[in-house]
Design goal:
By secondary structure, the protein is an alpha/beta fold. It has two domains: about 150 residues, D-Maltodextrin-Binding Protein, domain 2; about 110 residues, Periplasmic binding protein-like II (D-Maltodextrin-Binding Protein, domain 2, 3-Layer(aba) Sandwich), CATH 3.40.190. A six-stranded mixed β-sheet has the order 2-1-3-12-4-13, with helices on both faces. Strands 8-7-9-6-10 form a five-stranded mixed β-sheet. The chain has a two-stranded antiparallel sheet with strand order 5-11. Strand 1, helix 2 and strand 2 form a beta-alpha-beta unit. The relative contact order is 0.16.
C-alpha cells in the first residue's frame, strides 16, 4: 500500500516538474520572440531613416500679420507642395520664432519660414540650413522702416532720441525689421538705453504695429519696407496717414530653411519645388498674401553675415 501511495506521489511531482519546464521554455521562447521583434522594428526604423523615406512634411510659419487666418492662407501652398513632393504637407502656425527654432531643433518641423535673425538663431541652436530666400519686387534685401503719423511733431530720426517717453510699437523683440535692426540703428545713433528712453509695445504683427500707430496708442512704429502695403485694403488712406521717418541699412530677405537631419535628397526636392513657384502665379499670390513675397531665389549661409553681427549685439536678449 505504501509503495502504491509513494509511486502515485512521485508521479504527480514528475508531472508538475515537466509542466513547469514546458511553461518556462514557452515563456523563454515568447520573450526571445518579443525581443527579436523589437530589434527588428528598431532595425527597420534605422533603415527607414537611413533611406530617407519620408511620408509627411511640416512647414512652420510665424505670423507677420493676422495669426488667425495664416493657416488658411498657407493651405494652398501646403497642398501644392504636397502634390509636387508626393507626400502630405502640413502648415503649422507657431507663436514666435523661438518656438519655431525649437520645433526644428527637435526635428518636428521640416521647413521653417525663418526671418533673418530667426535663421541665424536657428543655425546656431538647431543646425538649421538655409536653402532659399525671398524676393520682394526683384530685390533679395530690404530695409527696416521707421513710421510716424503724417501730422506727427516728430520730424527726424534725431527727434526720436531727443524726446523722452515716446511709445514705440513693434511686432516682437525677435523681429528683424520690426525690432532688432531698428534697435541697433538707434544704438548706433547714440541711444544705448532703449528700455529707459522708450515705452515699448509688442503688438504681435507688423500690421498691428501700424494699427497701434493709427489708433494713437504709439508715437512711432518700426516695420519692414514698405509694410503699409499690407494695410491698403483695410485702410485705404494708410499711405497718406503714415509718414516714413527713416530707414536702416539693407537686410537680407527672409529664408526658407530646413531642419538639420532632413536627408539631402529631400532638401534638393524641396528647393526645386519652391523655385518652381516662380513660374506659378497662383503660388506667388499665396506667398504675397503670407509674407508679401514676390519671388524666391537660392541662398547661402554667408548671405546673413550682417545679421550675425547684429545678432551678437543682442545675443543675451535673444537667448533668454
Amino acid at each position: 500500500m505504501f509503495k502504491k501511495v509513494f509511486s502515485f506521489v512521485f508521479f504527480l511531482i514528475l508531472v508538475v516538474v515537466l509542466v513547469a519546464c514546458g511553461s518556462s521554455k514557452d515563456s523563454s521562447s515568447s520573450e526571445d520572440s518579443s525581443t527579436d521583434t523589437g530589434e527588428n522594428q528598431a532595425n527597420e526604423a534605422e533603415e527607414k531613416n537611413a533611406d530617407g523615406e519620408i511620408d509627411s512634411i511640416v512647414m512652420g510659419f510665424v505670423p507677420s500679420q493676422d495669426a488667425d487666418t495664416l493657416a488658411d492662407t498657407a493651405k494652398p501652398l501646403a497642398d501644392k507642395l504636397g502634390e509636387i513632393l508626393g507626400v502630405s504637407v502640413e502648415a503649422q502656425v507657431m507663436t514666435d520664432y523661438v518656438g519655431l527654432v525649437e520645433a526644428m531643433r527637435t526635428q518636428n518641423v521640416d521647413i521653417g519660414f525663418l526671418n533673418p535673425f530667426g535663421f541665424v538663431q536657428g543655425e546656431k541652436r538647431a543646425g538649421a540650413k538655409v536653402i532659399l530666400k525671398s524676393l520682394r519686387n526683384g530685390e533679395d534685401s530690404y530695409r527696416a522702416q521707421f513710421n510716424v503719423l503724417a501730422d506727427s511733431e516728430i520730424e527726424s530720426m534725431e527727434d526720436l532720441l531727443e524726446t523722452d517717453g515716446l511709445v514705440w510699437a513693434y511686432p516682437d523683440t525677435l523681429a528683424t525689421a520690426g525690432y532688432l535692426f531698428p534697435a541697433s540703428h538707434l544704438m548706433d545713433m547714440g541711444e544705448e538705453d532703449l528700455d529707459g528712453h522708450f515705452e515699448q509695445m509688442q503688438t504681435g504683427g507688423y500690421d498691428n504695429a501700424l494699427i497701434a500707430l493709427l489708433d494713437g496708442q504709439a508715437d512711432f512704429a518700426t516695420t519692414f519696407e514698405d509694410a503699409r502695403d499690407i494695410m491698403v485694403d483695410d485702410y485705404p488712406t494708410v499711405m497718406d496717414d503714415i509718414r516714413v521717418l527713416g530707414y536702416t541699412d539693407p537686410i537680407p530677405n527672409d529664408t526658407i530653411s530646413v531642419r538639420s537631419e532632413l536627408p539631402d535628397e529631400w532638401v534638393d526636392k524641396i528647393r526645386d519645388a519652391f523655385l518652381s513657384f516662380n513660374e506659378d502665379e497662383e503660388m506667388l499670390d499665396v506667398l504675397f498674401d503670407i509674407y508679401s513675397w514676390t519671388g524666391i531665389t537660392e541662398a547661402k549661409s554667408e548671405d546673413y553675415d550682417i545679421v550675425r553681427a547684429v545678432y551678437e549685439r543682442f545675443e543675451d536678449q535673444l537667448n533668454e
